């Protein structure tokens, strides 16, 4: 049997580890240099102790924490890409699946979401079932850096500028000329977008969408 001193020590150690996990969650939005809100840890994952988050996320590097794009911004992204029923829309880092699900539900497109977090994939699949589009949407548990995106005709991103830059050689090696890319909030280094759309969402937050139509040129 443990002495009460040993029990107190164990509780103290557990508390310190738990607090370490919690402290990674910023309480207030963080702004990027361009004035956009930085993706934050979701409250649910932030409340998990460090060790449980480490074991639930698929191997691979994290390109961004989970922050959903508001639905009205998703709608603008799909409009900007001029999505139709002929499209295959890939969302790299798909979170709860709202972008591929909206593409399927509102435009009849085929949607594919890739996420490194099994909880997000499970949530996205449940959302697709609820939306009645499971037959047109696929969610892949995996690393966006190693996923074959060559069948995409539209790619959507809400990651970070540095992550977009890591994906750039992969996208420009694999995608077919004419493929449209829309990124919420983050640009892609010196690859100039064809269109930049800025607006305030219904809560008054400034939003920026970057749009590229791939010209077939490989970019490192
Ligand atoms: C900012 S959220 C965007 C979610 C969704 N695309 C949206 O706009 O609502 C970024 C997502 O990328 C996922 N992610 C981070 N690193 C990843 C990687 N290497 N491969 C695939 N997904 C990743 C996270 O789990 C998170 O769900």
The CATH C-level class name of the largest domain: Alpha Beta
The number of helical elements comes to 7
Structural category is alpha/beta
Instruction: Kindly give the count of domains.
Output: 2
CATH architecture verdict of the largest domain: 3-Layer(aba) Sandwich
Tell me the overall shape: globular
Average pLDDT value? 82
Estimated radius of gyration:
19 Å
- For CATH, the homologous superfamily of the largest domain is named as Vaccinia Virus protein VP39
Going across the biggest sheet, name each strand in turn.
3-2-1-4-5-7-6
Number of strands: 7
The fraction of residues in strands falls at 15-25%
The amount of helix comes to: 25-40%
Cα distance spanning the termini:
61 Å
Query: Could you say which small molecules are bound to this protein?
Result: S-adenosylmethionine
Q: What is the fold named in CATH at topology level of the largest domain?
A: Rossmann fold
Main sheet record: 7 strands, mixed
**What letter string, H or E per element, gives the SSE order?**
HHHHEHEHEEHEEE
Low-confidence stretches are: 1-55
């Amino acid at each position: 049997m443990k002495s009460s001193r040993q029990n107190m020590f164990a509780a103290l150690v557990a508390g310190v580890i738990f607090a370490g996990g919690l402290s990674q969650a910023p309480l207030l939005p963080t702004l990027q240099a361009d004035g956009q809100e930085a993706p934050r840890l979701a409250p649910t994952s932030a409340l998990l102790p460090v060790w449980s988050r480490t074991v639930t996320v698929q191997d691979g590097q994290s390109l961004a924490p989970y922050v959903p794009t508001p639905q009205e911004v998703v709608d603008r992204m799909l409009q900007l890409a001029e999505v139709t029923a002929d499209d295959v829309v890939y969302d790299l880092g798909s979170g709860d699946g709202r972008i591929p699900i909206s593409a399927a539900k509102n435009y009849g497109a085929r949607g594919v979401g890739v996420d490194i977090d099994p909880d997000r994939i499970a949530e996205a699949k449940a959302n697709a079932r609820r939306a009645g589009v499971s037959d047109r949407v696929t969610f892949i548990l995996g690393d966006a850096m190693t996923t074959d995106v060559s069948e995409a005709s539209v790619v959507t991103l809400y990651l970070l500028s540095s992550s977009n830059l890591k994906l750039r050689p992969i996208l420009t090696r694999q995608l077919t000329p004419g493929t449209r890319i829309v990124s919420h909030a983050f640009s892609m280094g010196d690859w100039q977008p064809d269109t930049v759309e800025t607006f305030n969402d219904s809560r008054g937050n400034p939003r920026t969408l970057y749009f590229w139509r791939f010209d077939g040129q490989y970019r490192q």
